[in-house]
Amino acid sequence: MSIQDLPPEFEQLLNRLLNSPEGELSDSDFEKFQSFLSSDPQAVQYYFEYSDINAAIQADVSAHLKSLEEIAIGDIKPEPLSGQESQVIREVPAKSRTPVVNYFLVAAASLMFFVAMEWMTSGDFLWKRPSDSITESSLTNLPYVATLTRSTDCVWGGKSLPEFSGQRLLTEDLVLEQGVAEFRFDSGVRLIIEGPTKIELVTSCCANIEYGTVVLHGYEPTPEFSLVTPRLTFHDIGTEYGARINQDGEVELHVFEGAVRVDSHQKNEPFAEAMIIQAGEARHLKQNVIDDIPLKSENFKREVPGAPKKLQALQQELLIYDSFHPPVIGDPERLSEWQNSGIGWANPWRKQQGHSDEFATGDSHPRKTLARTDQAENQLGLIELREGNTAWRTLEKPIRMDTNAIYYLSFYMQKINSGPDTVAEQFGNLSLQTSTVSAHPRNILMGMSSESYATLQADMQIMEKAPPLQTGKTYFFVAKIVASEKDSDQVFLRAFSEAEAIPEGEPPVWTCISTPFQNSNVFDLVRIQVGHKGDFLFDELRIGTTWAAVVNPDLPRLVLEKR
Amino acid sequence: MSSTISLLEQNTRGIFTSLLSEDRLRIFGYIRTLVPHSSDAEDVYQLVCLTLWNKFDEFDQERSFFSWACGIAFYTVCNHRRRIRKDRHYFDQALIETMSQKREKHLENFNSRIDYLHECFNGLNQSDKQLLQNAIFENQSVKEIAKAADKAMQTLYNRLSFLRRELAECISRKLQCEQQV
């Protein structure tokens, strides 16, 4: 049988794959190629044979692999037993370079490749790139994969020290010496670790654990979360399970809900096949022995202990508040002076950004509120902006993107008029701005687009989410702004409808999420803006440093009483 | 005492590197067919080498080093796939499982096939050898070769395809002769 007995398309795809070793086939071509391999054993044979031919003709493949080994393992001097390597076709003698020379050649080649890529992608070299005082456009190499949601009595070791709840976590090693911490991976899976534990966050669906105690809470939409121990990998199947991993690699696994599939990194007995451990079962997994043991959920911290914070403590975490409550109700009421209420501001709401003292225009509704909970008398009031109204206000303490911090921002918003027959100029939004003059201001903006989509703009990214929000309905917007001095920044936005409950902690699902970016802006201004054909209500604006500070319904009343 | 440990360690390292040297091309060949992206295959190879070394004290030297390495490579490929399958082309898990078993068996006569490849390659005419060497050995792009040779790219792609087919059939014939002998 010859390869020509197979459909000609297979040979074409195979050659294309071999001609482009970095996998430049289109998605559909790759799918076709894969379906040939899946359906025809002969296709697999030809794939193997052609791959070997290609590999054997490549330059110095053995020396290249040897240099990769040295980089991976370190300085292991080769001592061939037979002294004979597999023969490859090459014109340069395989042993003409020492491993050290090979290593430096690889390093030099990598450096040259990096420099070439730098030039190709940016049109300039790193050392010649013009500086951008506003923002760095390049992304960090390490991606964010999880959020530290809660922690109690934690002492962190290692190089990476998580500082506060809400902090985004990169793919890196974390060493918890003592205490209990909870991560929510971006896939939705929650992992509670108890010190001493050493863990590496690999992706939003995978973590390596060297030793320690963990409880994993699976998340239904997440296909599978892999927890990799030195000897085993656990895959959750709708699971809550606890695992204690000893330094020697032995594991105690207790399955509280669902099931766990256990794969060994070796195929030795008794781990030749993957095993499923069901809810209510527990196992002690040693190198060559598996023992049934009693299930002991009490041996694990299944949730991070600790009561919700008291309101007194939460006050410190609320930086800005504005209920748009006018101190005096005017006549007519819509002209009541709402521009000077609230706390945490350096000046009143103004029409323009500059030094003008002219109050922003917009109607006051002093006896109404958009808030979903009962409001005190001194919290009532909301504003209506329309037909291009814009209001600017300066923060007493700016939001700094050039430092490690988490900020939360919330406000109520309702579009009250869709306009007759157009979808242009009907937007309404709130944004964080900087008073520094810049040719390319990179602000953070959230609200509704003219088409009524929930929208988030961060850095140079614009995210819009279908379906459109409804006119006449109130939405509670909550944004989380992750600022980082050395790593990437990121913004999350959730628009809650009236029917949705507001959770006490951060939700697993957001309406819009920016991709990580780098920005060192200092946002000292808040702007509320409505398109020339828009008509919006705004109420209860808050900025704080925790989720609870911007969503707790009782906090504003306490803050106002204290004033 | 410490010198005894050091000698033991050196001896272990020596055995490990010897075994790895003998099988590195086969191990990489195993990984390369399961991981379609070339630089990913190299990443996986490094992970596999590291794991083999870390677990070498668990290796039963009565067994085949290559089979043991394939077992570890299989799981490393699966884990790698799980991590990056959304970013790049990766075969389905079921196909990886099927191919991994076939590939391990297929690589049993790898050294013979590479010897025959050498013979078949030497039997090609000089211009064909040059094309293969430039396109694969030197890793030049077909576009560059076509420009230098003043030929159409498609002509060269067709020729490369033909030469691979010729080499595969030549190796196959030689293997059949070997079996008949």
Give the largest interface pair and sizes: A-B, 72 and 74 residues
What CATH architecture of the largest domain in chain A would you give? Sandwich
Computed CA radius of gyration of chain B, to the nearest angstrom: 20 Å
Q: If you average the pLDDT of chain A, what whole number results?
A: 81
Span of the ends, CA to CA of chain B? 55 Å
Helix content of chain A: 10-25%
CA distance, first residue to last residue of chain A: 89 Å
Largest β-sheet summary of chain A: 11 strands, mixed
- The percentage of residues in β strands of chain A lies in 25-35%
Which quaternary structure do these chains form? heterodimer
CATH class of the largest domain in chain A: Mainly Beta
- Give the averaged pLDDT of chain B, no decimals: 84
SSE string of chain B: HHHHHHHH
Which descriptor suits the 3D outline of chain B? Answer: globular
Give an overview in words.
Chain A folds into three domains: 132 residues, no CATH class; 156 residues, Jelly Rolls (Sandwich); 252 residues, Jelly Rolls. In chain A, helix 2 packs across helix 3 and helix 4 packs across helix 5. Chain A has 563 residues and is of the alpha+beta class. In chain A, strand 19 and strand 20 form a beta hairpin. Chain A has eight helices and 25 strands. In chain B, 80% of the residues lie in helices and 0% in strands. In chain B, helix 3 packs antiparallel against helix 4. The longest helix of chain B is centred in the first third of the chain and has 33 residues. Chain B is globular and about 60 Å long. The interface between A and B is large, with 72 and 74 residues.
Secondary-structure map with pairings?
The complex is a heterodimer of chains A (563) and B (181).
Chain A lengths: L7 H12 L7 H13 L1 H17 L3 H13 L25 H24 L21 E14 L10 E3 L2 E13 L4 E14 L2 E12 L8 E3 L3 E14 L5 E14 L10 E4 L3 E4 L4 E3 L18 H5 L2 E5 L40 E3 L16 E5 L3 E11 L4 E11 L12 E6 L10 E5 L5 E5 L2 E5 L8 E10 L6 E7 L15 E2 L8 E9 L4 E10 L2 H5 L3 H8 L1
Parallel strand pairs in A: 5-6
Antiparallel strand pairs in A: 1-2, 1-3, 3-4, 4-5, 5-7, 6-7, 7-8, 8-9, 8-10, 10-11, 12-25, 13-14, 14-25, 15-24, 16-21, 16-25, 17-18, 17-24, 18-19, 19-20, 21-22, 22-23
Chain B lengths: L1 H33 L3 H17 L10 H20 L8 H14 L3 H13 L3 H12 L4 H8 L3 H28 L1
Helix pairs in contact in B: 1-2, 1-3, 2-3, 3-4, 5-8
